[in-house]
Records
---
Amino acid sequence: MGNRGSKPGTGRSPSATQGQQRNQRGRATATAAVTVPKDTAKAYDALCDRLKEVSVLGGISGLLGWDEMVMMPPGAADSRGAQKSALAGVLYDKKTDPVLGQLLDALKAAPPGALDPYQAAVVRDAGKQFIKDTALPKELAQRIAKLESDAYAAWVKAKTASDFSLFAPFLKEWVEVNKEKARLIDPSLPPYDVLLDDYEKGLTSARLDEVFAQVREGLVPLIAAIKTRGRAIEDKWMDGDYDLDKQAELCKKIALDIGFDTDHGRLDVSVHPFTGGAHPTDVRMTTRFKKHSLLEGITGAIHETGHALYEQGRNLKYDGLPVNAALSMGVHESQSLLWERMVGLGRPFAAYLLPLLKERFPDKFGAASAEQLYEGENKIAQPSLIRVESDEVTYPLHIILRYELERGLMDGSVNVDDIPKLWNERMEAYLGDRPPSDAMGCLQDVHWSAGLFGYFPTYSLGAMYATQIYAAASKAIPDLEAKIQAGDFKPLKAWLNEQIHSLGSLHASGDELMTHVTGGPLDPSVFLAYLTKKYTDLYKL
Amino acid sequence: MGNRGSKPGTGRSPSATQGQQRNQRGRATATAAVTVPKDTAKAYDALCDRLKEVSVLGGISGLLGWDEMVMMPPGAADSRGAQKSALAGVLYDKKTDPVLGQLLDALKAAPPGALDPYQAAVVRDAGKQFIKDTALPKELAQRIAKLESDAYAAWVKAKTASDFSLFAPFLKEWVEVNKEKARLIDPSLPPYDVLLDDYEKGLTSARLDEVFAQVREGLVPLIAAIKTRGRAIEDKWMDGDYDLDKQAELCKKIALDIGFDTDHGRLDVSVHPFTGGAHPTDVRMTTRFKKHSLLEGITGAIHETGHALYEQGRNLKYDGLPVNAALSMGVHESQSLLWERMVGLGRPFAAYLLPLLKERFPDKFGAASAEQLYEGENKIAQPSLIRVESDEVTYPLHIILRYELERGLMDGSVNVDDIPKLWNERMEAYLGDRPPSDAMGCLQDVHWSAGLFGYFPTYSLGAMYATQIYAAASKAIPDLEAKIQAGDFKPLKAWLNEQIHSLGSLHASGDELMTHVTGGPLDPSVFLAYLTKKYTDLYKL
């Protein structure tokens, strides 16, 4: 029996490796004096070296997160925490290095035309990020870190007891802390706008007020009409047990058909589906399957594939630079929702999907028609009080409700103590139903316990962007829906790669990107027209 | 159909996370002035903070390596390279920080008794490592990095052409470079000893000369006797196809029976079996199975389990400190070989294994006896010219041959150009057979192309340590072999945990550890007695 050459490391590094490290760095320690080059091109290169290093280390952080969710043994949580913290410390040092600030200052002062549009976008976004990274004094940063854990614990307790008053003091502190943070980052803007920019670059609350008012006015009557005048849709026939292995195999086939690239990514199963990874060439997507929820597994897989295609579609010419990052949370969500809803829940896709279902689940789908599948997929079970269980028609109102409240908290027009009352009143006004408890109402979501004001809107921005993008794609790609029906998703993927994915963060806002792609800024009337047409037809209103 | 909350990051970090990072660090940048505490306890704590940070970041590096071998999609190789390089750069900066050197200088000057034995070992090993990490000037480090790739490419070419002369110039440069490196690290020692210390702490070539001479003199006649007078052993009956899933399931059962802890580790399959991971609580072990090689899969799994138990057995009281690292490559190998050979290839284990084989592979093992299994497992197929295909009797001579040559290269008594001639002569003298080509001879192993002089001996040191440790365990644990036969591996694992694993690098050398565990230093006569007894009996010499 032969010996094997395998040996784990001993914690000592052979000198050859050390040599390689030193060679790769070529500098002694972080304390060495650095001067900012006077030449714009050289300064830009020096900036890019630093930004790319941060991006690469951030990629490692992404891998640690994926591994933690998908692979890590349960007893390694503490050591993983220490690893994430140490790497965050390294990243913090790199991101707040004063030399980075000096390079950015020099480049912001560069003569017009010295930088091409991609380079200008790098300086613009890196400059904004540097201000955010360096704005907070240590005391405030520590207060935020403590509040994150304290408020989470309080939210868990309050939700369990269904008693908002247990959470109220922490939400009050988040309001104060977020106001202070926003003031330090940019005192010239409304505080809520500063927070919003973290998730949806370039968006203002004034713009969002207009957009969401229009959505609200369009949806409230549509929901009421479905509720009062909609026909009954039969979907009970799809209930039942679906073999998990067959679900996984089917969803992998769908992801690959749509265009997920396993040379540059992995598909795994995790408790919560997500798309993460370490790099556009290393995208880790996960799905989840439940025996009783075939459609949830399928739409979840399509949704994550949409996120993954955005990640895999970046332009590696700008690898590691801010201009190559996702433009915003909303734009990211537009990619997942375009595939999930515009494609995956449409009639042509039902025609593509049905034979795959018949093959795997003949007992259930042997006699079904594509129209029956389409109807079952799109049935609105019951306008739900719970956001994460809601359908595409009621979902935006959940978001608008939260937006109105968190925006009010930040501008002082809403008091924390009034949240439960306001929540219940508006839920009744928007969805025609009143939550029976705080747990089912204003305590249902975790986001506020983490101080995330400005995050919720991106869900609905993504849904709206998706309808506009799909409309533009339908014009640009001949016979798009016939291609979808035939399972040929390549033209749509290629168009998205070119129009959206490869552009990364070149544009300064979602509005700018929409103008580039669709000829006009975000336009809620497209979203409303889509929903009205689809559900008027489906429910024969 | 509900929306999902899953969203990949956008490359932007919400400020709350930044706050946490800053909070966890509590310092501005790496350029802040640092003073070395005068108080020994405080200086020691400051040292430990830095060493632990390096250890944690090194753990991340371990995870990147594991992921690359087991999980990473093929198209991510470049981005993974960039990640490893960036992290290596960070580690290099941390490991060569002058403040670390100042802390070590202060602690080396601490009054006797100011540090307990574990603390003293931390300062001893960290001090040695700091010298190694800072010894090489940039030019030499760059030369080494270049030589690593050039020499590897030349070795591949030379091996393919079976022509040593193509590789000779690179080996000459490695000799020069390694001499220079050794001189920079410690000019007071023979250069080979400086290199050896990277892999086998505290060992000298003078000591190794004695040890290996004794082994050589004992083994050459034993091998000749087996070859000329040994009886034929029947093992053809085990040939055949073994279902891979059944092999994997069996090997997992064996690893768990032996004591691998899946709360603090994972078992996966990879192209080359190895044990790695990120932390003693996160040990990643891999195995490999071939349809035609049942025994190779089983012994491989046992071997890696031995490595993994050493990793999982560390004393977390000293987590992240050098004293808690593996003592040496040789000691690591002693743990894998103890389980693989002393346990896994012994008669009691064959009695434990046989029913498991009968259950899974009744066609092959239904009629077999434990003695037949034992004989089949231990048959020496043919003294092999290839190291990695060799058995435990001939293997040490492969190592000794390489040791003699690389030691001769370093002290000037061997010329690079004479290597093929010397190799072939000694192979004939030691194993009674002459390689038909350089590819089957002196070019067979990759190690020299990476400049790894001093690495080979650790394989055989591990085998020798293992026999001594097993002898000590047999005295300390009543009825050890009866317990093994019954599949009760807990007492042996617990004894190793206490005697070896939890001590980490406390001792200054393998000799010191052996003295602690077995009452005396490394003693090749124990190894020789074990082999002579086992094979005299097996081959009825």
---
Amino acid sequence: MKGEAIEQGETSRAPMARGINRGTSILDLILRLLALIGTLGSAIAMGTTNETLPFFTQFIQFKAEYNDLPTFTFFVVANSVVCVYLVLSIPLSIVHIIKTRARYSRLILIFFDAAMLALLTAGASAAAAIVYLAHKGNVRANWFAICQQFNSFCERISGSLIGSFAAIIMMILLIFLSAFALARH
Amino acid sequence: MKGEAIEQGETSRAPMARGINRGTSILDLILRLLALIGTLGSAIAMGTTNETLPFFTQFIQFKAEYNDLPTFTFFVVANSVVCVYLVLSIPLSIVHIIKTRARYSRLILIFFDAAMLALLTAGASAAAAIVYLAHKGNVRANWFAICQQFNSFCERISGSLIGSFAAIIMMILLIFLSAFALARH
């Protein structure tokens, strides 16, 4: 009798609730794919950046590569790790579209999403700080703007930040979506 | 009859569930207070950093302040904003200890926690990138390590990162805790 009563109460509002939960899960999958493209693009754009200047002295050829600066290496690593994580999380996201009432798998996703959000933000903003320095330099610390010489290098590294920052926004929305799905149970 | 049945089903497992939820909410409050102390300490430590070297030429007195570098100003602002947010979120956290079944207020907290996590991580890691540069310099970009001259300045700015990074870990745990409380409904 008890079981029946609860089941009745559930079925009366089930189709709509399931529809919203399924919509949430599909949106989750789309956001995950977009974040994946963003981080992959950022990692590739930064990882393939190098510029050789068309003049050189006897001893030095002027050349700039992303891994001249450890921060950019960290940026590539962070984006790659988050990208791999997103690929691995896609099957779980698809499971959530089918099994809309899953709870603990969503909880695990939220935790790792938050950790990956922190990693991605760390990489992107550390790189942004160095890119800013490359553009503007700093008079007080006597650090010169290197973008005057390495122009296309600078454009490339600045551009590669965009995908990463877009992915950060996606990740925040992903956390919210998973939490929203949990709150609706 | 239906209402009664559901109520019966709830009361049988209610005391334990409520106890766990209350424990989660208390842990949430403690983590929030710790993160608050971390960000406040970081903001104050960085904001009060300056060093005047004991020698000067006719024209220049050698002096280093945190706001010589825009990244450190951003670090102070980010930490202050997160600190104010944490203060404002404490009343809500206390409400959750009393009303353990609150759902949508937890959802709002998760969203803002995630956004603040991103802001705090951005500030902390941008500052970390510059601190790293101040310590090590970069030969390829011709940026010199300034820590040889400004020794105590560098120690202070390095130290002020600790509170921020500790707060980042607290924020990740806070998001997980709120999601855990939602999953248990």
---
Amino acid sequence: MYKAPVEDIAFTLRHVAGLSDAIDKGLLGDLGEDLVDAILNEAGRFATEEVAPLADIGDRQGARLVDGEVKTPDGWAKLYQDWIAGGWNGLTGPEEYGGQGLPNMLNVAALEMWNSGATAFALCPTLTMGAVEALSAHGSPELRHKYLAKLISGQWTATMNLTEPHAGSDVGALKSRAERRDDGTYRLFGQKIFITWGEHDATDNIIHLVLARLPDAPAGTRGISLFLVPKFLVNDDGSLGRRNDVFCHSLEHKMGIHGSPTCTMIYGDGRFGGEKGAVGWLVGEENKGLNCMFTMMNNARLTVGMQGVAIAEAATQKAIAYAMERTQGRAPGWSGSGMSPIIEHPDVARMLLTMKALTQGSRAISYACAHAIDMSHRASGDKQHWQERAALLTPIAKSFSTDAGVDVASLGIQVHGGMGFIEETGAARFLRDARIAPIYEGTNGIQAIDLVSRKLPLSNGDHVKGFLAELRDIADQVRSSNLDGFGETAARLDSAIADLEQATGWLLKVQADGKVADALSGATPYQRLFGLALTGSYLAKGGLARVSDGADERRIALCRFAAENLLSETAALKDRVINGADSLAAARIALA
Amino acid sequence: MYKAPVEDIAFTLRHVAGLSDAIDKGLLGDLGEDLVDAILNEAGRFATEEVAPLADIGDRQGARLVDGEVKTPDGWAKLYQDWIAGGWNGLTGPEEYGGQGLPNMLNVAALEMWNSGATAFALCPTLTMGAVEALSAHGSPELRHKYLAKLISGQWTATMNLTEPHAGSDVGALKSRAERRDDGTYRLFGQKIFITWGEHDATDNIIHLVLARLPDAPAGTRGISLFLVPKFLVNDDGSLGRRNDVFCHSLEHKMGIHGSPTCTMIYGDGRFGGEKGAVGWLVGEENKGLNCMFTMMNNARLTVGMQGVAIAEAATQKAIAYAMERTQGRAPGWSGSGMSPIIEHPDVARMLLTMKALTQGSRAISYACAHAIDMSHRASGDKQHWQERAALLTPIAKSFSTDAGVDVASLGIQVHGGMGFIEETGAARFLRDARIAPIYEGTNGIQAIDLVSRKLPLSNGDHVKGFLAELRDIADQVRSSNLDGFGETAARLDSAIADLEQATGWLLKVQADGKVADALSGATPYQRLFGLALTGSYLAKGGLARVSDGADERRIALCRFAAENLLSETAALKDRVINGADSLAAARIALA
């Protein structure tokens, strides 16, 4: 059973991602180390004792559509109420509306724990938090006044309605329509699919944020507006009015995250009588809906990345526990009597260490991204630097972590042997739950396009170059530390960073030359190359922190394993970026 | 929907794996190219039209235990009867008992198609075929006479009973016991788990092959005997007698292959009255049961490899079809109107080409392994050479193909985007079905131990060295072909083979020096390195075959893609083999 790794999480926040530094510099207001500990410990307790025990029933029972109503798994509605009673929904929300105004880093760390406990459950507040952000930034004073406090407390939840059958990655292709009414409201019509927690029984209202087109809107992405559409209309005194013209038509049967209702939502069908059309209010300006949505999507990408980290952590814990318990055969050098625990077999140890290194690497990348977001809001003077850092790290945090989630969960099954394939063991669920994360909130392929074509060119390529210099500095510190435990880490980091540097330079150059297809052919290998180089660098940074002897030694040893066993892949990835495009283009005939 | 790739399969058999060569040399009796075509075409038709359409209901409905009886999914019992009526069960069985005595290569090719159609279904005859082999080789004349004809026709099916809760990879730990009776029979007692198709309603008898210990047996693997235990006793005239004391206690809930009943079998519980103990007959000699089982396990490893090839093929077909149909965004260089098919996006093309290359590589390796098995039975003079080749290729065919099955199925989900996560699409099932294959029939980690510690040292390392020379020869032929389409293939092959050569030499040396842990630490990366080098070499061999212009061009282009995009991984793998062990050993403290 999952136990929240509060110590690892706190260490990574403080010494790798920059939390202690920001606190020391006074950039996080009156947030002190004690409060950080208190929050992480209590989140860890809640995730371990309350959330994780309900994951299994959520998977087995799933969300069910009964007479048009969605039933969440047994115990989940109460779990949600307990969870919001703990104040967890409003950790980062604006204090003006009852939020705690804490840095994003803490929320991301807590999200990791909720997601390790039960990803399908954690999805619900994740969507609400995104909506809070979009409304805070773009909602009118009236909308903010009416909805924000209840969304921040979690009394109501929220959804994001983008996807339609023919508009997935290409949001611009959507067809849902909105009509203006004289009173300033709108009426919405259309079908949205893949709406996470679109309908459920855990709260008495649900606030939908919906992308749709006005009749006179320009084609494509510039003709999309964002609307707020509540399930029940809200009276001026905050009480609930009549049911709005929106309902859940069906639930998807998914490979995983069964406890999360994935809804097809119908707007404006007239099912509840009266004038057809779901009543909606404009968020932001007409035809500028995509801008508003991007506010929440960027953060949502990081929170999806956390799902990868979270599942990797839970899968790793489970696999290590099993490998220490299960005995089979005799490992080389085993001097005990009888069979050895399988963790003693080098191949099993290799799998577990790979799992652990990928988990910690993706955690560090994701927390560093959250730190950059925090700093972009709070640091004075270098706002642009931190905005660019957050922008650069977001696609890597999303893609590398979610790929790690899948790879680690799959290795976890392998460590369990035949038991891993049996659902009751629980290892298989991790892979089933993890498999969606590289897809939604922008597929990892789209993250790679974003990274290569929009993020590398920031500040004319100077931002990424500055970042590479920071990584080189970490390698230099490893070298000058003279700590034996690091083994060949410094040299391995040097070549990984050199590979990243060459690939970066090449991508910037071919794009400057207008060779877009060449750049995009290597985007995915480049994204992984970046993630691996960061994994090595951040594990090294953690190893250098030196806070307590035993833990230091373990961190340094894991860093060395990553450097000497995982980083060797960077040369192959660089090669694919720089030399892979021609053969890829030529081989298209093999797909005909 | 899956369509059997008969042309690709026939090409790989003939021009890559050596079938035409063997036919030309007269090593396969009167088997002619026409008969090969007829068999493959008819198998392809049956797999496409009869098996594949029932895969989905098998997954959704699964095998069910009702009142102690196992119900197979709707339509599967009839499908099985139609399938045996086609003579498919006895393709390679001895002619003496009604088999067709055809080479293993053809059966393996047909197995690929059954498994692409529905892996859970194909598992049933796969087990029977293994039992036929074990009985043919080790059964007494009486047992052969009584059982072989009906197992070869498929009128009865068979099972393999090895695993017990505490004896999985380590078979020697098993505890099931057998007692001698005066009439020469035995009585068996114990519990076996994970018994594939252990109980079902598709035939009127099931023949269990069961490993158990005699009371006076030595401890460990040298005290295990093999017994034949029929579900219903068989009278001398072949009619069925009373129910034997064995039953299916429960079915596992598995991540995939739902249509295949995975049974816990109880022997000697007395449930059907009378004296307790399941009546069994010894196969082979007492305490030599593991030898007998190995006969069938080696072949079973190749047939599990075919599951990987088969799922990879089916997943690739589905993903390509979807990517040609689905439109989103505008790919660079897209000149059509509106959105482009996603296959035009370089990142999607990269995924599809990777899937295709891994599928064809693992197919070639597996067919080459089957060829070696055939030659070891039929070639005159170089029997040992072919035995060693089969022994060397078996762990690679099993592990590389089943890893490819998982990786390709996972990429297939990614290509489908959100739809890939929805069960009705069918892409998710491939990953769920594929995930067991790297585990059962010896985990891929155990295959790697076998490869490194038992197969490399064959003929003092000379066998593997000779094989490497054959691969070098292929690279030379590519170079001297002067075909532009191959791009950098020759040079890329050279370095992949050099990496393999160095890693091989290193492994032989450290084992000679007694450094077992060092060798085993690198066993899994080595196994993948071997598989990748073979993939490149065999795709090149296919590209060199030159049989028809268009197809030749496509094969050469795919080979080049594999050489220039996938083979770069071999340097990293070699590095892990040669330089990875120390940091792996040092990092064990991080798992504490």
